[in-house]
Amino acid sequence: MPTILHHQNLIERNRKTLGYLSTVSLMDSAVNDWIITVSYYIALHLVEIAANGNDKETNRLLPHADRLEFLEAKCVKAKQFFHNLYVLSESTRYGISFDDAVLVHVKEILTRNDFSQMVSRWLEHIESIVTS
Fold first, then answer.
1. Which of 69, 11, 76, 2 shows the shortest CA–CA distance to 43?
2. What is the pTM of this model?
3. Residue-by-residue pLDDT tens, the chain, 132 positions
4. CATH code for the part of the protein at 4-130
């Protein structure tokens, strides 16, 4: 099972990757799917740390439904942003079609001019909630 330190190291590594991808996306929006994926994994590790109560000894991986339940108890908006990242990352990585409306929404989001800023706001909101 991952430890708190392991989660923290992955968060830091993913933040560095996200910083690089964000500069590249200014020139090439084709990397936006990777921005979604890396952002989702940063959020996932933040939620895992918080949901496990920073317990360094018993750190277990939660199913997605449990993460959503944890976030809902903290803040419904954070839950929605986390779920958005999850759905978008699943859709862009695996071509999973939750339904046609979601796929249209994914395409709209990936081509937005303010794409990176929007995803960054989602991630900042999640982090502020789970670390408070």
1. 11
2. 0.82
3. 678 888 899 999 999 999 998 888 766 767 888 888 999 999 999 998 888 776 665 566 788 888 888 888 888 888 888 988 888 888 777 766 656 666 666 677 777 777 778 888 989 999 998 888
4. 1.20.120
Contacts of 79 (CB under 8 A, 6+ apart): 68, 71, 72
Maximum Cα interatomic distance, the chain, rounded to a whole number of Å: 44
CB-CB contact of 118 with 112 (8 Å) = yes
The conformation of residue 28, written as its DSSP 8-state character, comes to: -
Instruction: Check residue 5 and give left, alpha or beta (phi > 0: left; psi -120 to 50: alpha).
Output: alpha
Measured distance CA(79)–CA(74) in Å, rounded? 8
Q: Looking up tokens 């330190």, which residue turns up?
A: 5
